[in-house]
Design goal:
Layout (H helix, E strand, L loop, with lengths): L7 H31 L5 H4 L3 H6 L16 H10 L6 H10 L6 H14 L2 E4 L3 E4 L3
Antiparallel strand pairs: 1-2
Length: 134
């Protein structure tokens, strides 16, 4: 019974080795996360193991002629405040696109629902909306 398999210390050593390997893996994962979060250059040795490093170091997408991206709510509210009559989501999208905002229908509807919940937009029959009156 004095064999190595029955020695209480050998069980502890096995657990410690396992924890050491696990913590090394966790440390490596945290290091990669720090590089991605801080936008720091990745270690070339990590690029082979981490698609995040390889993808991030590629060239940025080309700039477009449109305005810089903005949240959906602001252009929607601006269009509704300037409107002479209540508008449908399609009319709002068309007006926003004329101003350079490329908005999707789902995003506009989500923004309208949030604005109605906040009380800054009124929902009317026939899916029309208008800016709430002060």
């Amino acid at each position: 019974m004095t064999g190595r398999d029955h020695d209480p210390l050998s069980g502890v050593l096995k657990k410690l080795r396992s924890l050491r390997e696990h913590s090394a893996g966790v440390a490596h994962g945290l290091d990669l996360a720090i590089h991605v979060i801080k936008d720091a250059p990745c270690d070339p040795r990590d690029a082979a193991e981490s698609p995040a490093c390889a993808d991030r170091d590629s060239a940025p997408p080309p700039a477009t002629e449109r305005r810089e991206r903005t949240p959906t709510m602001r252009p929607v509210l601006d269009v509704l405040r300037r409107a002479d009559a209540p508008m449908t989501p399609s009319e709002i999208i068309t007006a926003c696109r004329k101003e350079g905002f490329d908005l999707r229908r789902d995003s506009v509807k989500d923004a309208l629902n949030a604005a109605v919940d906040r009380g800054v937009v009124e929902a009317l029959p026939n899916y029309r909306y208008r800016a709430a009156r002060d």
